[in-house]
């Protein structure tokens, strides 16, 4: 129950944050700038030195090196988050004298590419976190990863709220920092659960310290708005440093102990977390120094690196969903970018045209792009498949190639063994079985690596449906006695001669449509090949009977035996 609530809470938060991010990129920002950057003065809590300044602080006569005393709440507002038109009153100390200065925030110039990059950064965390929560929340490592991604995405969204509206006072910065702390703690949990749960080494100790350190760090955050002591700021930052180091150490240990086949995906995960957390640390250091935290954009390494490894190396069973998401995002990007470029070119060439003509040109461009959607989709799909899903398509091609070669195998046992091998190796089936129709309508497992695969009557629910429709069938209702999760018919001359039964993949992932179609073709071709081998065997036996001298009774007995088989 708690896990289900947690899942829906993450999905709700991610959806709300995505909506705000989309609105934020459309509406103009209301962010303001007082024109000064501050850095803490060592040994004097609550005292800040002016490092750099511009208008309006320069017009007010302030100079670099002047010091001001501010509570943390005013520091957050005056140095980082302000709305255009707000006032900030400062007591400025210079050479032992004090004077009062009131600054009025001017609209902060924010480059469009910066706003776009900020939106991409938020959406990438939120989209991937929501996708993992939606598709694979039963896995503990996936729960931790989804929590981390959504927490980081929410923190960046709250920063955007302040930058655009200035709403929330010190509440939003505190919640923002708490989200980063909680997300970093979740990263440690993920690192100690992936690829397998750590129960007997240093990773267990690192995980056990997460909750107490996270609670202490979050509890210290409200003190920053009222306390002038250094510990109020140091403890949360120390907690983030601990979580960063613990995550990298845990993933490093997992990488060192991983099997050779698992090391490529482990290396990608470790690199993504390492690059992303280094960028986060540098960004925090820049903020403390009163500089623009451009390094925070390096956090893009986390969602993009994880998206690649999930899709290419199948960390979780959402590869097909990621494929569709990447393809549709690519198609949308190509269409929108093409429309904007063409519209800009038209505006440069047709400067003096009427509004009606301009509208007609825009409609013409939109119409052409609409007809071009299909080829654009095909090209983007091909590029994405080559980059992210090449291994899957090579496996699918191997299945189809063996399906074409099945009728060349001359031994029934060899054909059955090879089919089971292909299903295990190329379809990645965790278990598979081949059923053939025997005497009295009983379908018997002639090859199987299921723990239990019993004979099934022709009146079994799954077999009835396949006999009627000759289509693959997913077995989730529990009515069929066949093992596995999906069954493919082996139809010969309109008759259900057998079935290929597959369990889910070893990763727990469902079969993508193209993989299902490849296995369907394999089942059909193997069914035809088995029938051809049976006919060939019968012909050889009949030829042998015809050549051997025997009485009519002996011939009838041998023919009766062949018919019974």
Task: Please give a structural write-up.
The chain is elongated and about 130 Å long. It contains 18 helices and 13 strands. The chain has 4 domains: 233 residues, Up-down Bundle (Rhopdopsin 7-helix transmembrane proteins), CATH 1.20.1070; 73 residues, PDZ domain (Pdz3 Domain), CATH 2.30.42; 67 residues; 155 residues, Beta-Lactamase. The protein has 565 residues and is an alpha+beta fold. 35% of the residues are buried. Helix 3 packs antiparallel against helix 4 and helix 8 runs antiparallel to helix 9.
Quick summary:
The protein contains 18 helices and 13 strands.
Feature tags:
565 residues; alpha+beta; Rhopdopsin 7-helix transmembrane proteins; Pdz3 Domain; 4 domains; 6-stranded antiparallel β-sheet; 5-stranded antiparallel β-sheet; 18 helices; elongated
**Shape-level CATH architecture of the largest domain:** Up-down Bundle
**Class from secondary-structure proportions:** alpha+beta
Number of helices: 18
N/C terminus separation: 54 Å
CATH class of the largest domain: Mainly Alpha
The Rg value, from CA coordinates, equals 33 Å
Number of domains: 4
Overall outline:
elongated
According to DSSP, the number of beta strands is 13
Helices and strands in order:
Blueprint: H1 2-26, E1 32-33, E2 36-40, E3 47-53, E4 67-69, H2 72-80, E5 87-94, E6 97-104, E7 106-107, H3 112-135, H4 140-165, H5 171-193, H6 202-208, H7 210-220, H8 231-257, H9 263-288, H10 301-313, H11 319-349, H12 355-371, H13 373-388, H14 390-405, H15 412-425, E8 432-437, E9 442-448, E10 456-457, H16 461-469, E11 473-474, E12 486-492, E13 495-502, H17 513-547, H18 552-564
Antiparallel strand pairs: 1-7, 2-3, 3-4, 4-5, 5-6, 8-9, 8-13, 9-10, 11-12, 12-13
Helix pairs in contact: 1-3, 1-4, 3-4, 3-10, 4-5, 5-6, 5-7, 5-8, 6-8, 7-8, 8-9, 9-10, 10-11, 11-12, 11-13, 14-15, 14-17, 15-17
């Amino acid at each position: 129950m708690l896990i289900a609530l947690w899942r829906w809470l993450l999905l709700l938060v991610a959806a709300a944050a995505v909506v705000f991010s989309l609105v934020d990129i459309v509406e103009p920002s209301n962010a303001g700038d007082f024109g000064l950057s501050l850095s803490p003065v060592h040994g004097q809590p609550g005292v800040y030195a002016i490092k750099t300044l511009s208008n309006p602080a320069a017009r007010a006569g302030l100079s670099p090196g002047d010091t001001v005393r501010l509570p943390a709440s005013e520091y957050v507002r005056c140095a980082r988050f302000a709305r255009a038109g707000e006032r900030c009153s400062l007591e400025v100390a210079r050479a032992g004298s004090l004077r009062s200065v009131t600054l009025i925030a001017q609209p902060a110039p924010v480059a469009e590419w910066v706003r776009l990059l900020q939106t991409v950064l938020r959406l990438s965390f939120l989209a991937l976190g929501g996708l993992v929560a939606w598709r694979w929340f039963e896995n503990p490592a996936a729960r931790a990863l989804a929590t981390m991604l959504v927490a980081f995405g929410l923190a960046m969204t709250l920063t955007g709220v302040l930058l655009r509206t200035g709403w929330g006072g010190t509440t939003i910065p505190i919640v923002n920092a708490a989200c980063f702390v909680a997300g970093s703690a979740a990263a440690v949990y993920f690192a100690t659960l992936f690829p397998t749960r750590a129960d007997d080494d240093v990773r267990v100790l690192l995980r056990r310290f997460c909750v107490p350190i996270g609670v202490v760090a979050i509890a210290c955050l409200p003190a920053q708005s009222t306390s002038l002591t250094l510990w109020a700021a140091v403890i949360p930052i120390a907690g983030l440093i601990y979580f960063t180091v613990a995550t990298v150490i845990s993933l490093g240990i997992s990488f060192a102990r991983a099997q050779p086949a698992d090391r490529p995906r482990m290396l990608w995960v470790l690199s993504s977390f390492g690059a992303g957390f280094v960028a986060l640390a540098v960004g925090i250091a820049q903020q403390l120094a009163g500089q623009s935290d451009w390094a925070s954009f390096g956090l893009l390494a986390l969602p993009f690196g994880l998206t690649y490894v999930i899709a290419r190396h199948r960390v979780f069973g959402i590869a097909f969903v990621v494929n569709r998401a990447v393809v549709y995002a690519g198609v949308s990007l190509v269409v929108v970018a093409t429309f904007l470029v063409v519209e800009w070119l038209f505006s440069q060439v047709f400067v003096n045209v009427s509004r009606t003509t301009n509208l007609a040109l825009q409609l013409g461009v939109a119409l052409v792009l609409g007809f071009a959607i299909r080829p654009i989709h095909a090209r983007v799909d091909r590029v994405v498949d080559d980059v992210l899903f090449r291994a899957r398509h090579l496996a699918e091609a191997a299945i189809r190639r063996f399906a074409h070669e099945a009728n060349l195998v001359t031994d029934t046992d060899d054909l059955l063994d090879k089919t089971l091998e292909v299903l295990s190796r190329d379809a990645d089936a965790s278990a598979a079985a081949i059923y053939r129709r025997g005497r009295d309508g009983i379908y018997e497992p002639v090859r199987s690596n299921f723990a239990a695969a019993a004979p099934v009557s022709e009146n079994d629910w799954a077999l009835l449906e396949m006999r009627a429709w000759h289509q693959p069938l997913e077995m989730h209702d529990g009515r069929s006695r066949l093992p596995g999760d999906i069954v493919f018919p082996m139809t010969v001359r309109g008759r259900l001669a057998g079935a290929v039964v597959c369990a889910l993949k070893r990763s727990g992932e469902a079969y993508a449509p193209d993989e299902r179609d490849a296995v369907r073709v394999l089942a059909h071709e193997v069914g035809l090949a088995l029938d051809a081998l049976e006919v060939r065997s019968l012909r050889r036996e009949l030829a042998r009977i015809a050549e051997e001298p025997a009485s009519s009774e002996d011939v009838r007995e041998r023919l009766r035996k062949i018919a019974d088989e």
